[in-house]
């Protein structure tokens, strides 16, 4: 029984399949996806639909899924006169922000789905995990898309803001949780100054950062086995 974490897929469906092939995921294994399955790369919905049919895969909420959840419901409405009037400033801002963050491929694939599948996708997105606490190989891990910089031992998880959990970059220069490794995506390891191996998994100061920039030029998709620490990579040829 093994536990794997996998970094931000960002529409790179082919890399995702390649990586699944490499880790040889078995039914009794568990896979945690660190969020940001959507946007940027060519096939975000294909990747999401694949995850939806994997009973042993659990996905964190990333800021890109959050943006999709803010926009898809009103984009699905028929543009009647009333709907257009209801399209308020808040929604226009949300859409502008999502567009800046590469929603094009997500929208393109989403609108080709039948209504029932669209609803299933929305339900799945609404149920994504904000965080996960995992024990593997005698070690304890806390998984969250972005970070938990304001961690305090007595603070209940509900007291952290959504911004903290899915937007604010983790502080990789220090240990955040004394007795757990903080597993994060969101910040490409190419940009972590402490990382001696930019573009590969970063471990240090109690962190395990697994977003290796799939969807960006020169990036790759990474997975780590939490029990053994073994790293797996998929990249474009
Ligand atoms: Mn992110």
SSE blueprint:
Blueprint: E1 3-6, H1 13-23, E2 30-33, H2 44-52, E3 57-59, H3 63-76, H4 81-86, H5 89-100, H6 104-110, H7 115-126, E4 131-136, E5 139-144, H8 162-166, E6 181-184, E7 202-204, E8 207-209, E9 221-225, E10 231-234
Parallel strand pairs: 1-2, 2-3, 5-6, 6-8
Antiparallel strand pairs: 1-9, 4-5, 7-8, 9-10
Q: What overall form do the CA principal axes indicate?
A: globular
* CATH class value: Alpha Beta
Strand order of the largest sheet: 3-2-1-9-10
CATH fold type:
Purple Acid Phosphatase, chain A, domain 2
Number of discrete domains = 1
Number of strands: 10
Q: What is the ordering of alpha helices and beta strands? A: EHEHEHHHHHEEHEEEEE
Which blocks of ≥5 consecutive residues have pLDDT under 50? none
Mean pLDDT over the full residue set: 95
Total helical segments: 8
Main sheet characteristics: 5 strands, mixed
* Ligands: manganese (II) ion
Question: What percentage of residues falls in helices of 4 or more residues?
Answer: 25-40%
Head-to-tail CA distance between termini: 31 Å
DSSP strand content: 15-25%
CATH architecture: 4-Layer Sandwich
Report on the architecture of this protein.
The protein has 237 residues and is an alpha/beta fold. The chain has one domain: Purple Acid Phosphatase, chain A, domain 2. The protein is 32% helix and 18% strand. The chain contains eight helices and ten strands. The strands form two sheets. It has a five-stranded mixed beta sheet with strand order 3-2-1-9-10, covered by helices on one side. A five-stranded mixed beta sheet has the order 4-5-6-8-7, with no helix packed on it. The longest helix has 14 residues. The chain is globular, with a radius of gyration of 18 Å. The structure holds manganese (II) ion. The site of manganese (II) ion has 6 residues, from helix 3.
